[in-house]
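ok so for the tutorial part 2 we go from a plain amino acid sequence to predicted structure tokens. step 1 is just haveing the sequence, like this:
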Amino acid sequence: MNVNVYLENEAKLPKYQHEGDAGADVCSIMDDFILYSNERVMVHTGIYMDIPEGYECQCRPRSGLAINYGITVLNSPGTIDSKYKGECNVILINHSDMPFEIKKGMRIGQFVFNKYESVNFIKLNTKEEIGNSDRGSGGFGHSGTN
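step 2 — the prediction. this is what the tokens look like for a chain of 146 residues:
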């Protein structure tokens, strides 16, 4: 699949670091700044994409930033729909108790593309019309902790 990309200013193309990677790293085009503890910011990438219909792009955290510095994508995964034609920015948050410097050109997130299908939602008259299963209505923590 090809994705047409327009780059603004000094933006870089998203880049896969290794063959077979699912996520392509994206970089900040903003001047260096400090992301303080518990602060969130929309980081500009300068990337505009023409995503084919039937696909979405998810913006996900970089694991190294998350484990080493507590920096993650706030709305993870952020969804970029095929009809969206604006700049594809990354919302970062600092979950650590230390300030963190985001440098211009730094890899701040990764884009992962997925094929999806839209569904038709059909309103039922009763909850019983949903049917039953072995799991039933058991939710969070229902299957145990081991």
